[in-house]
Amino acid sequence: MKHLAVLGSTGSIGRATLEVVERFPDRFRIVALAAGHNVELLHQQAVQHRPTLLAVEKRDDARRLARELPGITVLSGEEGRIAVATAPQASTVVAAFVGALGLVPTWHALGQGREILLANKETLVMAGDLVMARARAHNASILPIDSEHNALHQALRVGPPQSVRRLILTASGGPFRTWPRQRLVEVTVEQALAHPTWSMGAKISIDSATMMNKGLEIIEAHHLFGVNEDRIEVLIHPESRVHSLVEYEDGTLIAQLSINDMRFPILYALAYPDRLPSPFGTLDLSAVGALHFEAADEQRFPCLAMARAALRRGGSAPATMNAANEVAVAAFLRGELPFHRIEAVIAATLERDAGMPAQVTSLEDVLEADARGRAWADEEAAKYGSLGRS
After folding, report:
1. Do 267 and 230 sit in the same domain of this protein?
2. pLDDT tens for residues 54-72?
3. Is residue 305 in some structural domain?
């Protein structure tokens, strides 16, 4: 039986993970949960799964939960997140926090040699070289839950690594795939959150609309699978049934398909290397009818090109880019930044980072780059806010 600690248990990935666990009580058990501000849902999860440890963001919320849930230790803040990630009973840590928040607890879990089921792509975007080195040093494993990288993980089991020609990440294209760029000035928050094929959290939905999500995934795939950036491609696939593909040297393409439901990659990762019978249905290709593909235009979606450039430059650039994106997306969601200016804030912040040291050699360096990037991005976003929605 696997004993699980879940970082981000009240988010979409965390909730899906608990649904999978509930279907296989003889295989998986929850021992620790960490969440942010959704205290009511965390309380319900704790009553159902009876973990020994909980963590929330605010100290007052932790005190309240501790009173309501006798026998369960409840902590708060970063201390609590790290405690959940390193819970002694946990053999496996599901890293499902959104954004940079997930880096530090995942870093500590790797130091304990845990199996990491990674949904938090920002961990590898910000500190990929350091994170992969730490995993090797502590004999920790990393299995991706992100649907695209989970698909690649499955397709890469078909042939030897040296025979891989390309990794192909598929993308729905988001809700504005067919919009001309000049129309992006009209985008509302509600429109940007209306993803055409997946039900996701707000930040990831906006990243999908700008295609930054796919840029982050290029960086993540590079670190996870050791494939150079120029051999990682993005293909627009509006139906989102093919979750990614691997092309081998002999010209064979191996694709992974399933229903658009995050419980599928989560079940795969939880059971790996076994496969468990899915209680979540199967994909009916005859009902799908047709699958469509088109090239990803990096001029139409400049966040893809920015992510590639940040990966090639290395050093603090990926962490800075990620920080700028998080700041810009948050400003857009608050109504303080026009949608079409998200990419401009990222580009301006990256330009300011260009003069920074080329090497990042420690977690502290990464966190410093993150903080610096956020401060710069706040300044850049404020410039557009003062101009209204122009």
Report:
1. yes
2. 999 999 999 999 999 999 9
3. no
Rg (CA), the chain: 20
DSSP per-residue codes, 118-173: E--THHHHHHHHHHHHHHHHTT-EEEE-SHHHHHHHHHTTSS-GGGEEEEEEEE--
Of 46, 31, 225, 13, the closest CA to residue 128 belongs to 225
State how far the Cα of 18 lies from the Cα of 209, in Å rounded to an integer. Answer: 27
DSSP 8-state assignment for residue 230: G
Residue 267 and residue 245 in one domain = yes
Return the percentage of the chain with pLDDT > 90, whole number.
89
What are the tens digits of pLDDT across the range 146-168? 999 999 999 999 999 999 999 99
**pTM, to two decimals:** 0.95
Question: What pLDDT does 198 receive?
Answer: 67
**Domain check: are 154 and 256 in the same one?**
yes
Cα three-residue angle 269-5-370, rounded to 5 degrees? 90
Asked whether residue 375 is domain-assigned, the answer is: yes
Over residues 287-311, mean pLDDT = 94
Give per-residue pLDDT as tens, 87-107: 999 999 999 998 999 999 999
Cα(first)–Cα(last) distance of the chain, in Å? 56
Cβ count near 135 (within 10 Å):
19
- Neighbouring CB atoms inside 10 A of 101's CB total 20
Backbone φ, ψ for residue 220 (5° rounding)? -60, -45
Closest residue by Cα to residue 112 from 78, 146, 145, 89: 89
Phi, psi of 12 (to 5 degrees): -60, -40
pLDDT band at 367 (very low <50, low <70, confident <90, very high): very high
Q: What is the CATH number for 25? A: 3.40.50.720
How does DSSP assign 97-130, residue by residue? --GGGGHHHHHHHHHTT-EEEE--THHHHHHHHH
Residue 382 sits in a domain whose CATH number is 1.10.1740.10
The reported pLDDT for the residue numbered 388 is 47
Q: Which of 268, 299, 330 finishes a domain?
A: 299
- 233: helix, coil or strand? strand
Of 213, 88, 55, 59, whose CA–CA distance to 149 is shortest? 213
How far is the C-alpha of 323 from the C-alpha of 267, rounded, in Å?
A: 30
133 φ, ψ to 5°? -65, -40
pLDDT bucket at 385, cuts 50 / 70 / 90? low
